[in-house]
Amino acid sequence: xxxxxxxxxxxxxxxxxxxxxxxxxxxxxxxxxxxxxxxxxxxxxxxxxxxxxxxxxxxxxxxxxxxxxxxxxxxxxxxxxxxxxxxxxxxxxxxxxxxxxxxxxxxxxxxxxxxxxxxxxxxxxxxxxxxxxxxxxxxxxxxxxxxxxxxxxxxxxxxxxxxxxxxxxxxxxxxxxxxxxxxxxxxxxxxxxxxxxxxxxxxxxxxxxxxxxxxxxxxxxxxxxxxxxxxxxxxxxxxxxxxxxxxxxxxxxxxxxxxxxxxxxxxxxxxxxxxxxxxxxxxxxxxxxxxxxxxxxxxxxxxxxxxxxxxxxxxxxxxxxxxxxxxxxxxxxxxxxxxxxxxxxxxxxxxxxxxxxxxxxxxxxxxxxxxxxxxxxxxxxxxxxxxxxxxxxxxxxxxxxxxxxxxxxxxxxxxxxxxxxxxxxxxxxxxxxxxxxxxxxxxxxxxxxxxxxxxxxxxxxx
Amino acid sequence: xxxxxxxxxxxxxxxxxxxxxxxxxxxxxxxxxxxxxxxxxxxxxxxxxxxxxxxxxxxxxxxxxxxxxxxxxxxxxxxxxxxxxxxxxxxxxxxxxxxxxxxxxxxxxxxxxxxxxxxxxxxxxxxxxxxxxxxxxxxxxxxxxxxxxxxxxxxxxxxxxxxxxxxxxxxxxxxxxxxxxxxxxxxxxxxxxxxxxxxxxxxxxxxxxxxxxxxxxxxxxxxxxxxxxxxxxxxxxxxxxxxxxxxxxxxxxxxxxxxxxxxxxxxxxxxxxxxxxxxxxxxxxxxxxxxxxxxxxxxxxxxxxxxxxxxxxxxxxxxxxxxxxxxxxxxxxxxxxxxxxxxxxxxxxxxxxxxxxxxxxxxxxxxxxxxxxxxxxxxxxxxxxxxxxxxxxxxxxxxxxxxxxxxxxxxxxxxxxxxxxxxxxxxxxxxxxxxxxxxxxxxxxxxxxxxxxxxxxxxxxx
Amino acid sequence: xxxxxxxxxxxxxxxxxxxxxxxxxxxxxxxxxxxxxxxxxxxxxxxxxxxxxxxxxxxxxxxxxxxxxxxxxxxxxxxxxxxxxxxxxxxxxxxxxxxxxxxxxxxxxxxxxxxxxxxxxxxxxxxxxxxxxxxxxxxxxxxxxxxxxxxxxxxxxxxxxxxxxxxxxxxxxxxxxxxxxxxxxxxxxxxxxxxxxxxxxxxxxxxxxxxxxxxxxxxxxxxxxxxxxxxxxxxxxxxxxxxxxxxxxxxxxxxxxxxxxxxxxxxxxxxxxxxxxxxxxxxxxxxxxxxxxxxxxxxxxxxxxxxxxxxxxxxxxxxxxxxxxxxxxxxxxxxxxxxxxxxxxxxxxxxxxxxxxxxxxxxxxxxxxxxxxxxxxxxxxxxxxxxxxxxxxxxxxxxxxxxxxxxxxxxxxxxxxxxxxxxxxxxxxxxxxxxxxxxxxxxxxxxxxxxxxxxxxxxxxx
Amino acid sequence: xxxxxxxxxxxxxxxxxxxxxxxxxxxxxxxxxxxxxxxxxxxxxxxxxxxxxxxxxxxxxxxxxxxxxxxxxxxxxxxxxxxxxxxxxxxxxxxxxxxxxxxxxxxxxxxxxxxxxxxxxxxxxxxxxxxxxxxxxxxxxxxxxxxxxxxxxxxxxxxxxxxxxxxxxxxxxxxxxxxxxxxxxxxxxxxxxxxxxxxxxxxxxxxxxxxxxxxxxxxxxxxxxxxxxxxxxxxxxxxxxxxxxxxxxxxxxxxxxxxxxxxxxxxxxxxxxxxxxxxxxxxxxxxxxxxxxxxxxxxxxxxxxxxxxxxxxxxxxxxxxxxxxxxxxxxxxxxxxxxxxxxxxxxxxxxxxxxxxxxxxxxxxxxxxxxxxxxxxxxxxxxxxxxxxxxxxxxxxxxxxxxxxxxxxxxxxxxxxxxxxxxxxxxxxxxxxxxxxxxxxxxxxxxxxxxxxxxxxxxxxx
Lengths: 462, 462, 462, 462
What we know:
Strand order of the largest sheet of chain A: 1-2-3-4-5
Oligomer: homotetramer
Largest interface: A-B, 96 and 97 residues
Distance between the termini of chain A: 75 Å
CATH architecture of the largest domain in chain A: Up-down Bundle
């Protein structure tokens, strides 16, 4: 593109320029050839241009070239670009120093605001400008997924991740999310993503998906963001039943044989999957469940019970650790014989062995949820942390609720019902967040052994 | 709502709670009665709750109550709430001090990030949480409009406004805006807002609006945000013609008499209106024009010229000032007689007077755009600053382009064509942003008087 | 378009042909020039081509040219074309004669079917083929409106009208109609048609329309046909109230002063308008009311009463006739003084006169509805025929329900409530259709004078 | 539902009635119990009610009950109901006789119209009234599919089928059909029907379907009717290529290996499927192809060639018949050895045998299309009749174009390209329809053997 003097009138091949603009204008601005693949250095140079005055005028084209160039890089080159962004677009250190000194000399809101302004890494403006390109928001979510994979190995990326968290928290604020029911009449291009993203109980194909969508007593809800129209962010699968289920296989099996419940009383959340790795830590799962509860209640007023049927993904590993200890707080000598059965393949499908295991595991599982804690004082089980943190109550333990190979491997088949009781959510959440107290039904508490039952109970009443 | 012990099972009137939740749960959480109007102190207390653990569990209800309570307040009480937010939700000063000291002791990216985290006023999280409520985004845009009205009188609000700018810049990033053409078949509820928000050439009613939408040679485009589905953010009105128009009235008059141009070559942007006071300073006008240029070019490939027909809103006031000066740099003694005509009502409709004024004003107007500057070195005219800043070129001056009372009052009828030439936009923008240079056609430059013509020209070539 | 031998390969200017096809192919087929306006003979020639083999291959283009050519004709030429269609495209008389003879010789279903096939006028196939063109359905509805205007003057058109009725009854079968609620957020292009087509209580403009759409207690429903997407076929305006209204003005006035009823019990159908003259006699009004009753009931379960507030458009004319008779069956000598007041302008706004008239008119109005009959035995009032035929009950007479000039002119202000009681609709309809019995409340019956009260009542019980 | 006297006011359980109305009102009207299944006699009784006065008031409920009752019947009972409709709802024979006599006495248009009115079987009104129920149109299409299955065995049904044809021709007039492109983002509930209805080249599952939808060079278009929103009526699959393809397998195989043509010149219609058995004989295939040609041309202006790649489903059967004849007009003695190869399994995959067969079949196939005729003088091949009747030209024969088992079985692998040349369509159609002439390329004609080549050619030029 030839340079022309400002103010000169010229007959321009407008259409040519327009197409140039659409295709390659960004590259042209920094002197790159059209067709060639972009390297790490090219992309960093384009990012510099995007942050300059030039970027204000031609931001869309520059942003598009950076994002498409980045997407085409090798894994190693992606790492280099991310580190380049992380190190090359930090905050303006000299201005930040001056602002910090001024603030410390006379700490007032105005000077604090100046510190905030100077402390913002230029990466945030970079990401905001990258978002100008069509489809950029999803490309940036994928970029953060790349970053998360590399974060452990490259400490320089940690600060960049904080920038993503800061911006994504604003962009993916619950106020901007849209809840949509996914049905068999939804676009196949979305349905295939449900198949791919289901993380809890794998969907075996289109027929299996259909069994989770089409029957009258099944629902699937997902959060979407307007800028990621075809990409679910998180979704939950629901069965409407007339009792709280204790096992997953009957729910997943084809419901052809039995008619759907005519007047369901219970909504069972039997699978919740985060769909976007790049949005890890940007929390919307709690909003999803509460919103779905409200919507279901409106649609089917007869529903009175809202529970999950959840895995206990940490249980088997935790139990193995406890069994390996010379002295466990949670296992008694008399448990040994029954626990030894766990090491024999096929125990779950032999009724004698299964019953013995069930009896032995019940108090241990109760202790796993109610007493075992991480070093920072939280429950060991990640799914428990999520639901208890949302204000749910630990309602029932279901040994052998999941006899699939995966279920047996991760929790010896143990599944859990968490109950969402609207009247309790707030105080459960508060007790859990402030004092680490776990809301649990008396049925679960009674499973605990030994003197500490009373004290556990007392704790819950305090 | 009675408190219940965690873990106790209870027969709950679920539906009642649900309705309570929908209507008044927020208030109930902080002990407020259902029906009563909320006062300033109530709202500040609800905001405290929203920022606490409790807010995490019941944020939607609290946010809704705060926003609806605020909306119902008197003007004076709104001021009190805004100041309450501004002063009560600043950054954590002690932690910020510590972080600043640590950073200054050893300035590195990690410590800079810590400063950024501590420097963020808690107001930003407050606003993010308020955005949980349905319809909150628009309510927050209105809240900022309230704040802007009060900012001059209440300096404490300035920092709060910076928080809004920070968040709105993320929320209203161009990547999230949707361009839509507004047509006569668009919802009446949106059309009535176009009538109300048109800020440049008032729309006299539905028939007048129809004249700007329905003819084959008229277009109206607006940016929308998904969370503000029925509220245009900014819109531009376009006429397709076969030449660059010099006056506005023929464009606004009913085009019934004359057929639309069969093969238009020129798109005239004859009105651009910001629709939301609460989004002042969140810039998207430049994106709007460039996007519309691309869309029109695709729809009607024959278009080769993209110009505005713009007002010069600062001209009359500036001229009055210059005339009042003992010695103006821009007015010559020989101009006096013609300028005196401006003081006689009706001059614009008398051909002799109008011609004399036109002749006299041409060089003065050229100087107004090309030489007159604000103390910070920018053009005096706000519309000029906008279009030149976008990379447009000052293409033609049209004295008596607008003989309406308003046009005569603000600019003695002067209108301007700015031209968007895609091949120039970037360098025009850069020259303007970096060096204050103004891109102008030779036709406009030739109107300038005196020795400085050459130097102006030279400047433009440097 | 040059003729080419079949089988020869030829480099064809395909795009040119395509455009020709879109614009003028139909005309080209019968040797007409592109730009020229079509005359009556041209259109009839195109219609011949459309009915030939040629029409099968190029029907869309021919149909479009015929319809657009027809639309551009003068009124007189339209008459000529309609008569040309009516006379030139009748049934195949010779084949019909043969089929009729064969049928009469041996009347069986097969021969009856042959008669049906031969008796179908070729006009029906013509209209079906005309419907191939884009937008044709609406054009054909307009063509029938033209025909209806001319039917009285041109008897030859009567048979053509029967063809339209036959086809439109199939096309506009209720199964194909879509009920949509019209709201303030509906397209302005539809709303302006509501303003234009309202036939009962004129809408004074956009603000007036808004008063009928936006308040919480107002609804407007319309039937649409998929092929006439922007053209309502019929629409009904509804007010939700807490009692049965006796006068129209309070409903039409701005409801700003008073809040909408919180818990409405009554849906008032206060205006029903047919929008398409060309669909006269294709009945869907009864379906509209019943469908709206069902939809409102689902939306607002508290509604228990569904009534109209209807005009009595034939009353004043009928009364004038009765008064002119030497001896009326319905007017008593003692009515004379009160009725004389009707001839004095302004009586309706003077309380003494108004009361006297009201008293005198009540029994006469009751007789107008319950006893007066057309020669064919139906009620005199056309609105009464519609609602009673739908199965509604005559519920209440409201003298001075409409004091507008129009209301006074057509019925001396009389308005009527017809009630749709779902449990009665079927038997009311049957009694009316089979035996001419009129369902009426006892309140209305009691207004009747003289010995025949008992016999009327008896009739209704039989 | 208790009967109540007209005019009596009564506290009615309105909601109950409403629900009754929605569920079972139709049955109640004729005294049937709610839950019981309907028998043949019940349905015929409901149909009588639907045609009575009662039907006018409660038609929707009656129609729904008849259609759902019918759908639940056994196959034998369905036959009985269809015969019941056919025999019980014929035309009014006495009135028809009178009208026929009056017409024959004095044949004029008015009397012809009276004959038409009386000759219409009451079945047509029955079907129109059945169409009142929600979803009725599709139910009626299925009912006609039932009828077609039974038509051969039950001659009484023939006349009923003519009624369906008459009504469906009006309902499914091309003016009411909507062309939609089916994509991978279309509803899965529609896509599964494409998989099910594909009649030419079976779709093996979701991945196979995706290969026909998602690649840049593939398209699938379908006609829909507004009242059958989720049911395609007919659809066509298209590949965009840069040459006319001679074989189907490369088109059906995964296009993963090779990139899509950048600048396609040719649109290949490689599969056309009717989706609704109940719409047999209601022709819209020709409209579909022409509309798709127009749409593709607009979307991709570079397309210049529109051809099919079609099967020759009648060829193998015809050839077997000819070979069985003592003396065939189309087979020469020297063909015998090559044709004998056809009887040896696997010949199509052995290059020597395949070549020999190809050579021998070429002239025979040309004769199959150009000379062989049905008793009524039409081409033997049904696909040829369709495309030649639409005005296409027989462009190229492709022996071994389809080596799939099905392709070999029905046509020894023979496939055909028909070309749609817009400039020829009309005259091709006319020559074919009026004189039975077949448009064919010279390449195909040259394949013919013997003296008749010249005469064939002459015929085509006449």
